[in-house]
Amino acid sequence: MESGKQKRTFGQWARDRKIFLIVLCSSIAFSAALAGLLYYVNFITYDITIQIDNKVAPCQTRSKTVGAVLKEVGFKVEEYDIVEPGLKKHLRDDLTVEVKQVDKVEEQAEETTPFKTVKEDDPELNKGTTEVTRKGKKGKDLVTYLVTYTSGKETAREEIDRETIKKPVDKIVHVGIREHIDGFAYTRKEVFQATAYSGGGRTATGTRARVGEIAVDPRVIPLGTTVYVEGFGPLRAEDTGGAIKGHIIDIYMSSNAACRRWGRRNVTVYLP
C-alpha cells in the first residue's frame, strides 16, 4: 500500500534539478560580473597629467576625483588657488589637471607725488607773459598694496593704504593780464551805462568838478581810480551821485548842451 505522501516521478525530479542548475549558473554568472565590476571600480588606473604652475608631471592613479589625486600626490590646495577642472570632477584617461598657485601679499613702497601748478592773475605783468614766483616741490607717500601673484607672476595690485611722508609744494605762476589802449594800461573791460552832468561845484572827494572826472558807484569803481572810457580817454573817478548805482557812470561835461547831446548810452570802460 502507498503512503499518504505522493512520490515524485523521475520526470519531476529531472525538471526540478534543471531549474536548480539554471538558478545556480545564473547566480554564479551574476557573482562573477559583480566581482568584475568591483575590481574595475576599485582597481582601475587613470593615466593623467598634473601641471602645477609651470611644472608638468605624468601620473597613474586609482583616485576617482581631482581633489583626491592632488591629495594623493601631497599637494595642498590653498584658499585662492585655481584648479581646473574643479576638485570634485571625476578623472578620466588623458586628463590634464592644472593648478595655478595664487598668493596675496601686502607690499609697501615709497612713491613721489606731483605738485600742482597754481596760476594767479598779475596786473603788473603784460598779457601773454608769465613769471614763476615759487618753484614746486614733489611730495612723498608711503603706499601699501595688496599684490596678487598667480604662478609666481604679479597679476593684480590694489592700493589699500596711503600715508603722506612729505607734502608737495605748489608751484605758483603769475600770469600777466595787463593790456594797453592808447598807452593806458588795463586789466579788464566792462560795459557801463554813461550819463552826463555839468554845473561846477565840488566833488565827493573835495576836488573841483571839471572835465576829466566822473561820478561812480564806489562799490564798483573805487574813488581815485583812473579809468579809460571809450570815446573820451582816461577819466578819474572823483564824484558820486544818488542815481549812480552799479554799472553806471556820470561824465562831467563843459555845458548843459553837451550833456543833452550825449544823453544816455552804453560805453566800454577799461579798468586798471
Structural features, described:
- By secondary structure, the protein is an alpha+beta fold.
- It is built from 3 helices and 17 strands.
- The protein has helices spanning 10-43, 66-72, 256-262, and strands at residues 46-52, 55-61, 82-84, 96-100, 102-113, 117-126, 130-134, 139-150, 153-166, 171-181, 184-186, 188-197, 213-215, 226-229, 233-239, 248-252, 265-271.
- The strands form 4 sheets. The chain has a 6-stranded mixed beta barrel. The chain has a 4-stranded mixed beta sheet with strand order 2-1-4-3, with helices on one face. Strands 6, 7, 10 and 11 form a 4-stranded mixed beta sheet that branches.
- A hairpin with a 2-residue loop joins strand 8 (139-150) and strand 9 (153-166).
- Mean pLDDT is 88; it is low at 1-5 and 32-41.
Query: Largest beta sheet, briefly?
Result: 6 strands, mixed, barrel
Poorly predicted segments? 1-5, 32-41
**Rough outline:** rod-shaped
How far apart, in Å, are the first and last alpha carbons?
156 Å
Helix content: 10-25%
In short:
The chain is α+β, with helices and mostly antiparallel strands and 272 residues long. It has helices spanning 10-43, 66-72, 256-262, and strands at residues 46-52, 55-61, 82-84, 96-100, 102-113, 117-126, 130-134, 139-150, 153-166, 171-181, 184-186, 188-197, 213-215, 226-229, 233-239, 248-252, 265-271.
